[in-house]
């Protein structure tokens, strides 16, 4: 089995930072209407403005291995970083996942997220991989974080609160 497939399986079987925790500033619930994957995600920030740091991301994810693994990878790649840095990671993930196989991803920016590069060749699965990231940016906005640095490209999966 290839290393990337193993990373996806590892993250889906043992998701990092799973389980909803307090404190949190915002909670979102997103559903992928194409397949039924769901995520409830909470974000806890410390500080304000451009200095705000992502202190915690907790979630409850139900869905395929790609969806659950992506949520686990998201939590690992954004906790402890500034909101601005986490949005750079989001942009790198989105760019890779929507590239239709043309962008292998930058491991320096997205860590284990590179394991999801193959998903970009399957448009129906891209929504699975982006579900948690869409919920994350929604939660940041609801928490009052400035997300204006991300492009206007829509990744919303039909989120509700």
UniProtKB/TrEMBL annotation:
One of its GO terms (molecular function) is iron-sulfur cluster binding. GO terms for biological process: iron-sulfur cluster assembly. Residues 4-128 form the NIF system FeS cluster assembly NifU N-terminal domain. Signal peptide: none annotated. InterPro entries: NIF_FeS_clus_asmbl_NifU_N. CDD domains: IscU_like. This is Modular FeS cluster scaffolding protein NifU.
């Amino acid at each position: 089995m290839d290393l990337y497939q193993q990373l996806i399986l590892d993250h889906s079987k043992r998701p990092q930072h799973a389980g909803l925790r307090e404190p949190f500033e915002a909670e979102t619930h997103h559903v992928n209407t194409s397949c039924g994957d769901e995520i409830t995600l909470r974000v806890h920030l410390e500080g304000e403005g451009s200095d705000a740091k992502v202190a915690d991301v907790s979630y409850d994810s139900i869905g395929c291995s790609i969806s659950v693994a992506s949520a686990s990878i998201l939590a690992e790649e954004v906790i402890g970083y500034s909101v601005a840095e986490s949005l750079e990671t989001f942009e790198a993930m989105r760019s890779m996942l929507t590239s239709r196989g043309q962008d292998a991803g930058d491991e320096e920016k997205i860590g284990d997220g590179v394991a999801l590069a193959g998903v970009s060749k399957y448009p129906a699965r891209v929504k699975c991989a982006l579900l948690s990231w869409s919920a994350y940016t929604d939660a940041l906005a609801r928490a009052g974080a400035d997300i204006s640095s991300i492009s206007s490209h829509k990744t919303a999966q039909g989120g509700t609160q």
